[in-house]
Amino acid sequence: MSEGTLLSKIIWWVEESQKVKSPTEKFIDKFSKYYTPSVIFLAVIAAIIPTFMFNMSFDEWFYKALVLLVVSCPCALAISTPVAMVSGITSAARNGVLIKGSAYVEEISKIKVFAFDKTGTLTEGKLEVTDIVPLGHSRSEILLRAASLEALSEHPIGRAIVEAAKKEGIKLKAVEDFKAIAGKGVMGKIDGETCYVGSRKLFKDFFNDLPEAHVRKLESEGKTVVFVGNEEKVIGLIAVMDRIRETTIMTMRELGRRNIKTVMLTGDNERTARAIANKIGISEYHAELLPQDKVIMVEKLTEKYGSVGMVGDGVNDAPALARATVGIAMGAIGSDVSLETADIALMQDDLSKLPYLIELSRKTLEVVKENVLASILIKGSFAVLTFPGLVTLWLAVAIGDMGLSLAVILNALRISLTKSDTLSA
């Protein structure tokens, strides 16, 4: 995604975020529709009944009716929620987080569990070849076959293998009858010989005897093992590994402190997934998942916990992001599809923004409650004090209306003081 395109998308997202209202905002809007005509009706009654039924001064009660109208003006109540939500969204944007609507500001505080994709989310998404294990063929021969096939693939592991071949000066060969097998690997003919490159799932379909000892050792180190073979046997193994993000371990710890469960969803095998999960301190993991399996897992987590946040970066994560209560995409490394599907984007690919988001959401909702409660109590008190004549028109304007509206706005501005760099304390 180009810088210009990204900037235009950010502007559009910020504009659109104002249209997605939270449940609290919708309730206040609905309440105001009934509140305003009710207040007008009450003011008319206050001016007419004392005059015509009890022979009281019309001027006095007409004045009190005006005071009641001013005091009961729903301005402060109506803006109490939107101004807090806008302040929260603006604060998030300043800290590198785009929230696509106030509904998600409210939802994030309800999340009980975060599900994470591994590659590109918990890790940097920069895979590197760490080991090449020859099994009857030379090291360069294995890398040549694997890279020639993977050059036609779009998988991140394939790109890492091709990059390793380039670094070693290996010239790739032409591939015939290339075929990508979803979730398993690739195959094709090189110099007339059918070759396979892929996961254990692919090779189990063709061979019974796999080099399990080598595989177990590599997977126990948190590495992903790629099998390379021909029609007769496995000729070698290639291990790739991705660096864990610097903020991953701290983020898992901070989420745990907030009693939020963390789950890793990955296509890696069981041993590799276990090694990574243990290293980063994640509380639960599910391995060997296809994109559709991740959606099923998100649905199961939703049934069990209620509110689920899904964090991912790739096209394959888009269905799971859409299914989650709140979908969160890695903004810089993420694909266009994941960014469009997600409700929140971490524009700096910084997982430490998740604890910040939770604090921001909770503080925003706290300010909303303060604003609504203050509006109701002050306006209610002034309305009651209007009838014995203890509230003047000037006092109603200065405190009950304009003053209260200003106080609500200033209180909402406190949300902007929430900073992401203060959360680890």
What is the gist of this entry?
The protein is α/β, with parallel strands linked by helices. It has 17 helices and 13 strands.
Describe the model:
The protein has three domains: 138 residues; 139 residues, Rossmann fold, CATH 3.40.50.1000; 114 residues, Calcium-transporting ATPase, cytoplasmic domain N, CATH 3.40.1110. It has 425 residues and is of the alpha/beta class. Helices cover 55% and strands 16% of the residues. Strand 7 and strand 8 form a beta hairpin. The two termini are 35 Å apart. The longest helix has 34 residues. The model has no long low-confidence stretch (mean pLDDT 85).
Radius of gyration, taken over Cα atoms and rounded to an integer in Å: 30 Å
Spatial order of the strands forming the largest sheet: 1-13-12-11-2-9-10
Gap from first CA to last CA: 35 Å
**Beta-strand segment tally:** 13
The profile of the biggest β sheet is: 7 strands, mixed
How many DSSP H or I helices?
Answer: 17
Number of domains: 3
Average of the residue pLDDT scores: 85
Which class best fits the helix and strand makeup? alpha/beta
Give the DSSP E fraction (strand runs of 2 or more residues).
15-25%
- What percentage of residues falls in helices of 4 or more residues? 40-55%
What is the CATH architecture descriptor of the largest domain?
A: 3-Layer(aba) Sandwich
Order of helices and strands: HHHHEHEHEHHEEEHHEEHEHEHEHEHEHH
CATH class of the largest domain: Alpha Beta
Low-confidence runs of at least 5 consecutive residues: none
Kindly identify the CATH topology of the largest domain: Rossmann fold
- What general form does the structure show? rod-shaped
